[in-house]
Amino acid sequence: MDSPQRHSKAHPMSTNSAAGDQSKSTVTNALHAHWRLFLTEGIILWILGVLAIVLPAVATIAVAVLIGWLLLMSGVVGLIATLRMRGAPGFAWSLISAVLGIVAGIVLLRWPLSGAFSLTLILTLFLAIEGLVSILFALDHKREFSGRWGMMLISGIVDLLLAGLIFAGLPGTAAWALGLLVGINLLFGVTEIIAMALHARNIAPS
User: Fold this and answer.
1) Higher pLDDT, 114 or 59
2) In whole angstroms, what is the distance from residue 153 CA to residue 159 CA?
3) What distance, in Å, lies between the first and last C-alpha atoms of the chain?
4) What is the value of pTM for the model shown?
5) Distance in angstroms (rounded) separating the CA atoms of residues 43 and 185
6) Is 171 in contact with 60 (CB distance < 8 Å)?
7) Tens-place pLDDT, residues 107-165
8) Looking at the predicted structure, is the pLDDT value of residue 71 above 60?
9) Sign of CA dihedral 106, 111, 114, 116
10) pLDDT at residue number 15
11) CB atoms within 10 A of CB 113
């Protein structure tokens, strides 16, 4: 004969399971109902990615301008917040940070190509460090990851080669490197969105 305690433990588990199934069903229905929206988003991003690869110089300037606006807006917001809290600790540092954000934003908006050069240098440094870390990580863990460590090693080598090519071609590569990498990143990311939309189209609503 089962004890009351066993029944009391089983009841919350079944309740949690039912709640999980209901939540999953809600998500599935939402995906199925809006699969066209996801597909449209994916197609638009795919087109933008292709344009960024075909016209990398234009995409590079667009990235620089976008970052310039972000820095400018964050600097203005930070300046307003800092001036409203003049008595707060670190007021001077907050003020300097806000002003630097505004200045950097204006510089990027006024001279986007010069800003693209600086951004390309940062990107090159990031790729070099990322590639080196990936290679060391792959070599250090090749036994644990068995076959998968090879792909990580290849990825690290590609990052280093790409960083070397961009750095060797400076300042010329600054005109297209950012735009090209943004385009490639868009194409890789948008593939998942399109695949999800096509999969959601075939899901039967529950």
Assistant:
1) 59
2) 10
3) 38
4) 0.57
5) 14
6) no
7) 888 888 777 888 888 778 888 887 888 788 777 766 655 556 677 778 788 888 888 88
8) yes
9) positive
10) 53
11) 14
Which residues lie below 8 Å from residue 104, measured CB to CB, with a gap of 6+? 68, 71, 75
Q: Enumerate residues 6+ apart whose C-beta is below 8 A from 168.
A: none
Using the structure block, give the residue that is written with the tokens 């002003």: 99
**Which own/partner pairs from 45-49 qualify as long-range (CB within 8 Å, at least 24 positions apart)?**
45/186, 45/189, 45/190, 45/193, 46/186, 46/187, 46/190, 46/194, 48/183, 48/186, 49/182, 49/183, 49/184, 49/185, 49/186, 49/187, 49/190
Structure tokens at 14: 């079944």
Q: Tens of pLDDT along 37-47?
A: 878 888 888 88
Neighbouring CB atoms inside 10 A of 69's CB total 13
Residue whose pair of structure tokens reads 């010069």 in the numeric block: 114
Under 8 Å between Cβ of 45 and 186: yes
* Distance separating alpha carbons of residues 48 and 190, to the nearest angstrom: 10
Q: Residue 160: its pLDDT value, please?
A: 87
Distance CA 190, CA 185 (A): 8
Looking at per-residue pLDDT, the higher value among 145 and 94 belongs to: 94
How many other β-carbons are positioned within 10 Å of the β-carbon of residue 52? 25
Tokens matching residue 25: 């069903």
pLDDT for 140 equals 72
